[in-house]
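Follow-up to my earlier ticket, as requested here are the two runs.
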Amino acid sequence: MRAPLLDSNDKTIEGGMTNMGMLDWFKNIAQGGKSAPAAETAAATAADDKGAELAGLNFKTAVDAHMKWKVRLESYINGTSTEQLNVAVVSRDDQCPLGKWIHDKGGEKFGYSETFFDMKAHHANFHQCAGAVLAAAQSGDAAAATKLLQGGDYVKASERVKMLLARMFIIASEGREAIDSHIKWKARLRHYITGESTEDLKAEVVARDDQCPLGMWINGIGGERFGHTPAFSVLKSRHAHFHRCAGEVLTVAQQGEKAKSLQMLEEGAYPDASQQVAAAVVTLFEGQRQAA
């Protein structure tokens, strides 16, 4: 995952918030759901496919294509397929679109992630299982091929790949959402100070570093994945400092000192802290990418 770049107006230059219907669809899969709830499936289907694209892969298309392997193999066993499937090719983990991504851009972008390596291993195992199903079918033993396809290692490997794909998407997407939400703090505070916002901001809550999306990410998935790195410790510390500064701005505003609080947004501790968080995010992800 790559942190979004920032411009001088506190906006993301590339990448926006992931469509929540799509994100919920992946969360259902990651939690072991056999299929997404109807409402979430509809939202994900209606969403722009670009909402599922990260690091050169459309994760929803990848999940759909992976799940179609069962239908493709069933058709082959039943003699209704026109595909010319080769056991040696099907057994390889670098020939399908997902496999090619894993061995190319996926490794480049997510090579630091344990979840990525788990997915890579299970994906390779899945193709070995799929090859075994195809080998049984080509030997003329349709019953054995069907048994392998409907139970045992094939089913376990297939479900594991699907869940790990969904988990990879969530890790990347929630991190990006969290970063984007941090950039919006300046506008939120400015609108509150000028009276353009109806948000009920409380200084004691804003001053906490575990209530915003980035803080939740840091204390959740982000911490689980990157907590062992020095760069993550720097990010966590800078993020906590930023929220203390934001809380001070809000406190001054709520004391009726509008001009002073607006000046604090532009000069001094607050803007410095905000930029330090952004720099720490970039350092964290760039460091992990280079170490991969």
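Run two:
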Amino acid sequence: MNKKPLSTAIKYKSVSLLMLVLFIAEPIAAKTVKVSMTAKENTVVIDNKGTEYPAWTYDGTIPGPVVRVTEGDTVDFTLINPDTNKNSHSMDFHAAVVDVLKEFSEVKPGETKHFSFVANHPGVFMYHCGAATMAQHIARGMYGIIIVDPKEGYSAAYPKPDREYVLIQSQYFPNAEDKDGMIENRGWTGSLINGKIFHYDPVHDENASLTLQSKPGERVRIFFVNANINNPVAFHPIAGIWDKVYINGNPKNTLTGIQTYNVSVATADTFDLVSPADHPTNNAIVDHTMSAAMRGAITVLMNMPDADSKLGKGDNILIR
């Protein structure tokens, strides 16, 4: 049998490994991502029994659409405020470094605002309306998430998840006109998760029909935004421990083995949870501040072999 000289074999192996490293480490080319949203003053349903609320929204939903780009991308943004609206609105991307008096200025009914920025910082960020009174615009539903994936992609420090979910928590003020109450933290009666009280919790709400799902042993990544007006969130996975917490969603800011992590107002963080692989389990992802949990801030995650293969993937990371 013919054999290659040892030095030649080592050379070929070294070249192959080098090519593999270069392929993995090659950063994703930056691109321009066009994002357009329409401010809508419309009625939405804020619980599982059908209670209606006079909301202010982006594109008609609470929260607004998920925006996802890669570090280095240019976000080309347009906000349309139709002349059928009664109020001025605006857009404040926490991922943007711009001029608050220019790009984030108010857009009157019948007008359009266009601006762009480069997403230079990886992580997860809140976006929201900054028009006066800001507390009212956010409380009535004008908020959402922008995810900026790291340009390096996945790594040992930031492993690829099996599933991803977006959870956005906010306070529900039934009196939509009470701006002073919102600012002073008076009159809130519910905690909304992705726009509804007990949205994914059939344990505490018999009308709830949705839960998060994964298979046993899968890595579930939660992109979480605290869109409350005033209250921090004690984010905790009952019957689990956060395997990783990425502060502000940035892989360079990593904590390991965390029971509860405090998420301040207008902040977003990323959380990884890995369930036992050898049997089905369930988690309740909660705001451990009991006044918030028992007003709606509980999300059930079911880890089961027959988990829906489409949930937590692609466009199904924010379940409505």
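The only thing I checked on run two: Helices lie at 6-25, 134-139, 179-184, 290-293. Let me know what else you need.
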